[in-house]
Design a protein that fits this description.
The structure is a single chain. With 246 residues, this protein is mostly helical. Among the domains are: 52 residues, no CATH class; 96 residues, Recoverin, domain 1, CATH 1.10.238. 48% of the residues lie in helices and 5% in strands. It is built from 11 helices and 5 strands; from the N terminus they run βαααβαααβααββααα. The strands form 2 sheets. The chain has a 3-stranded antiparallel β-sheet. It has a two-stranded antiparallel sheet with strand order 1-2. InterPro entries: EF-hand-dom_pair.
């Protein structure tokens, strides 16, 4: 005992006897602990075991806070969701951004009108957020609306519309970088990613079907006389016809 050693049987009997209900270890786990703290002579270094249990707890009172509380003051702060929910919210924001740009809508004035009345700083209530989306004809399903609220919820009862608008702008800038929009800023209806296409579009031909080809290329000499352009009747034929009728 001067070397803080006890026999393996005593170590097992202590952990499996009076302390069994307290620590809740199985017999296999107790044997694994005995093997871990076993000395070369087969006895157990129980003092090292006690030091690991009692003296290895760090003193956290000497550490300062990692979160100061000012992070929530970020006007573009959003909440973290699970991986499937984050993927779904990105798809939902992409749909909304496409709809907003296609209709050339401006979202900020609709949210800022309420902010002037309620004197909120970049936030609106959940009900007003729903009314603005409905007024702009951005119709979302109930579960999609709840997902938007969970993502941009602030203070438990308001929606951070600044972060919502910023997220839509980020999505549209991403589409511009990836070539999903044309030169006019419109979203391509049939975007195929980065697939290359070497065929050029056909030029408009308004003369097709309205102007005769011989008027454009001139009269062509054709071997068959039936296909030749008929000639205008001569003036002498009219006199000959009038003479025979007398």
């Amino acid at each position: 005992e001067g070397y803080s050693l006890i026999s393996e049987s005593k170590f097992v009997s202590v952990l499996g006897g009076p302390l069994k209900d307290t620590i809740g270890l199985s017999e296999q786990e107790i044997l694994e602990l005995a093997d871990y703290f076993k000395a070369p002579d087969g006895r157990i270094l129980y003092r090292q075991f006690c030091q690991v249990i009692h003296d290895n707890v760090p003193d956290m009172t000497k550490y300062s806070n990692l979160v100061s509380g000012l992070e929530w003051e970020d006007p573009y702060h959003v909440n973290s969701l699970s991986v499937p929910e984050e993927r779904r919210i990105m798809l939902l924001l992409t749909k909304i951004a496409t709809l907003v740009k296609a209709r050339d809508l401006v979202l900020l004035p609709h949210f800022q009108d309420y902010e002037i009345i309620a004197k909120n700083d970049g936030t609106i209530t959940i009900s007003h957020f729903a009314r603005v989306l409905h007024f702009l004809k951005i119709f979302v399903a109930p579960e999609e609306f709840r997902l938007l609220v969970r993502k941009f919820l602030k203070d438990g009862y308001t929606v951070n519309y600044m972060a919502f608008v910023s997220a839509l702008e980020y999505v549209y800038q991403y589409m511009e970088r990836c070539g999903i929009t044309d030169l006019g800023g419109e979203v391509l209806p049939n975007f195929r990613g980065r697939a290359m296409n070497a065929s050029l579009p056909k030029l408009p031909r308004p003369e097709v079907g309205t102007v005769p080809t011989d008027a454009v290329f001139g009269v062509q000499k054709i071997f068959h006389p039936v296909l030749n352009k008929p000639r205008d009747p001569e003036i002498s034929s009219f006199f000959h016809t009038s003479k025979t009728t007398r």
